[in-house]
Specification:
This protein is mainly α. It contains nine helices and no strands. Bound molecules: zinc ion.
């Protein structure tokens, strides 16, 4: 493939990805406010309806210097950050599958990851993890992943078993911490999220996701403690750590597993 062709594909992926990120922002905020998904976007401060030119992902925010074009109130950093993250996730998913052309796998990786961003936003901003959205995400993406795995020639029983074991182990591991710590280490929402990740990723990928989640979450907690952003014993949202752990498992899981089996044998 020529350089220009690859370049155009990646730019298109970034643009499409950023619009999905914009949609994710709407889903997160309207789920929090318990309002419908349809209807024009408004400024949360002055309530004026936004024009399409105010809704271009990342660019509108840059051009308006992070402020509402009508009232000048700062726009929450969530908007450009999620739009940019979604653009990056799309570029990564497409880049990973440019050589093999497995677009259904690329789609699975992108839509699952971008969907999880709803929970990152809601947990960070409001410490909320909506149950219906988590269950829906779990059902849709575990089926999608199982169909993809079966299509690679993996025996159906093995596929089913992997997802059942992933779901059961992830749920039990977090339920155990929830009970032992009397709800201090993890919340009920974290158990559900871990169950969803276990069902979608399957075993052993979810094990790798949880491993990375503790590394990322632990490092973030240490940095926040040392910079005195939080006090010892403070509750910090764990969903972002679990979700970045899931990203790491999808991107690096197969290499980690190959390395482990090499080290063991
Ligand atoms: Zn405004």
């Amino acid at each position: 493939m020529q350089f220009f062709e690859i370049f155009s594909i990646l730019i298109s992926a970034a643009v499409v990805g950023s619009f999905f990120g914009s949609f994710i922002n709407v889903v997160a905020i309207r789920t929090h406010e318990n309002s419908g998904i349809t209807g024009r976007s408004k400024c949360p401060n002055c309530k004026s309806k936004l024009h399409p030119r105010h809704l271009v992902p990342v660019l509108s925010w840059l051009i308006q210097r992070g402020k509402c074009a009508m009232c000048g109130k700062p726009i929450h950093i969530q908007y450009p950050v999620i739009e940019l993250t979604a653009a990056i996730l799309a570029v990564v998913a497409v880049t990973r599958h440019l050589p093999d052309g497995e677009w259904l796998w690329a789609g699975f990786e992108f839509f699952f990851m971008v969907g999880l961003l709803v929970f990152v936003v809601m947990d960070l901003r409001w410490m909320e993890l909506p149950l219906e959205l988590m269950v829906g995400t779990g059902i849709v993406f575990s089926l999608w992943h199982m169909v993809l795995q079966s299509s690679t020639g993996m025996p159906s029983l093995q596929v089913l078993w992997s997802h059942a074991v992933g779901f059961a182990l992830a749920t039990m591991f977090f339920l155990f911490q929830y009970i032992v710590s009397a709800k201090r280490w993890v919340g009920a929402g974290d158990i559900w999220l871990a169950a969803v990740l276990g069902a979608v990723l399957g075993w052993p990928l979810v094990g790798i996701a949880v491993y990375f989640a503790y590394i990322f979450g632990g490092s973030a907690a240490l940095i926040l403690l040392f910079t005195r952003k939080i006090k010892a014993g403070a509750r910090i949202p764990f969903a972002p750590a679990l979700i970045t752990g899931a990203f790491a498992a999808i991107w690096w899981g197969p290499s980690v597993l190959a390395w482990i089996s090499h080290a063991v044998s």
